[in-house]
From TrEMBL:
It is found in: Nucleus. Belongs to the Nudix hydrolase family. TIRR subfamily. One of its GO terms (molecular function) is snoRNA binding. It holds the Pfam family Nudt16-like. Signal peptide: none annotated. It comes from the Eukaryota. This is Tudor-interacting repair regulator protein. Gene3D superfamilies: Nucleoside Triphosphate Pyrophosphohydrolase (3.90.79.10). One of its GO terms (cellular component) is nucleus. Keywords: Nucleus, RNA-binding.
Amino acid sequence: MGAMAAMGALPAGAGTLPPLPTLGVPGVPELKPLTRYEAMRLGPGWSHSCHAMLYAPNPGMLFGRIPLRYAVLMQMRFDGLLGFPGGFVDRRYWSLEDGLNRVLGLGLGCVRLTEADYLCSHLTEGPHRVVAHFYARQLTLEELHTIEISAVHSRDHGLEVMGMVRVPLYTQKDRMGGLPNFLANSFVGTAKFQLLFALKILNMVPEEKLAEAVAATQKPKKSAIDQAAGAT
């Protein structure tokens, strides 16, 4: 069951639930968490988006010495932004999971998520009233690779989705290679927050390493000329 799925409903007569986990990484604006139960009680003025992180333990080593830890899938979108598979769900006609699976079927086709894969919900900032629901499913590395192959043959490939990418979860000795450089890319909506939140909650990357990676992206970068001069 997902790490937050047990907090999705509030049984009658139950006491107050413990505080919901927060990201707590300096430099990343915090989003307001809410339980699945609270999210389902929001009025009709709210839109619901559902996205999923598919991942697998990866025993591989980069250059024979850097542990890869996990393979985590994201997408390069048509607008050049990174995001997770998923989209908006019309709650008038679909449950969260049914709506999510309809969208996943267009781009992946060979995976179906359930309420047990539910991880968290957050209210988003901005002029639109959107609650972002996030799911996470652990697969085997072979299953993940099958999804990558299937995605190339989906009807959305090359149109709304330009391709799947794996997130590097390591940081190289220069303190930028790997996760810091990846986080310096542009992400759609809540995708960057959800990535960091899932990596922390699922204990895939230590919190201090996440904070270091985010901090590295906020340092002024040297120009190509300065880098060339420093190398000579």
